[in-house]
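About this split. The held-out portion is used to measure sequence recovery: a designer receives only the structure tokens and must propose an amino acid at every position. Recovery is the fraction of positions where the proposal matches the reference. Here is one held-out target exactly as it appears in the evaluation file.
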């Protein structure tokens, strides 16, 4: 899950991004409306945390642009980003205008990072899994709200990146994902595409799943990428 933080207050943007990364999301920062729209044209974001008061374009206008762009990611269907408006404007009229512009949620500053993260989780659940926080495929069960994973009924302790990678596979099973796609959706702009980061994380994830369940369902498809197999 990849999230764009659009916020011109640098310290706040960095704090929000750090909080999201601790929860296992890839988080990029855009300091203004133009760079937000540019980044969203290149990367697919699952959620955008959007400051209403930006130095260049009004946040409402940015929101309208982001939710109207068609969203594709190769052969898998992706949703347009969910938008959480972040603003000091808290009147009922402002909220209605924000929601009418395509925002999915609305958070008035100052807010706690815990609340923002909880709202992000709720938004992601809304579409991905019929509102259920538990995702199951093959012998794996993931509780995205509690950050817990079991394989074959045994508890598995994962790093935030391993957790994020597994969540991506569980949400898109039986589809081959190239390393580039995994980098795009699970890692953020700080990831170096020339390192073995995807291969290493997959290798650690497989080992932990196999230690718990005796086997793991993540196949390598030579020359193409990786696939979580749900049928044996
Ligand atoms: Ca601002």
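Reference sequence for scoring:
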């Amino acid at each position: 899950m990849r999230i764009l933080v659009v916020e011109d207050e640098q310290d706040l943007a960095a704090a929000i991004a750090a909080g999201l990364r601790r929860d296992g999301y890839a988080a990029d920062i855009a300091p203004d409306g133009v760079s937000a729209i540019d980044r969203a044209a290149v990367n697919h974001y699952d959620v955008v945390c959007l400051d209403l008061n930006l130095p260049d374009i009004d946040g409402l206008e940015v929101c309208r642009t982001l939710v109207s762009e068609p969203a594709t990611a190769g052969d898998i269907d992706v949703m347009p980003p969910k938008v959480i408006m972040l603003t000091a404007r808290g009147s009922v009229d402002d909220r209605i205008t924000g929601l009418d512009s395509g925002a999915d949620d609305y958070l008035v500053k100052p807010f706690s990072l815990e609340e923002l993260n909880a709202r992000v989780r709720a938004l992601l659940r809304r579409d991905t899994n019929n509102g259920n926080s538990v995702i199951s495929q093959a012998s794996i069960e993931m509780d995205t709200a509690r950050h817990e994973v079991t394989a074959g009924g045994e508890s598995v302790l994962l790093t935030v990146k391993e957790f994020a990678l597994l969540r991506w596979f569980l949400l898109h099973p039986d589809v081959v994902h190239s390393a580039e796609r995994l980098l795009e959706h699970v890692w953020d702009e700080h990831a170096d595409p020339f390192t073995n980061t995807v291969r290493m994380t997959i290798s650690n994830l497989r080992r932990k799943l196999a230690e718990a369940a005796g086997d793991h369902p993540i196949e390598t498809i030579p020359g193409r990428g990786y696939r979580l197999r749900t049928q044996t």
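Annotator remark: Residues 19 and 36 are 19 Å apart (CA to CA).
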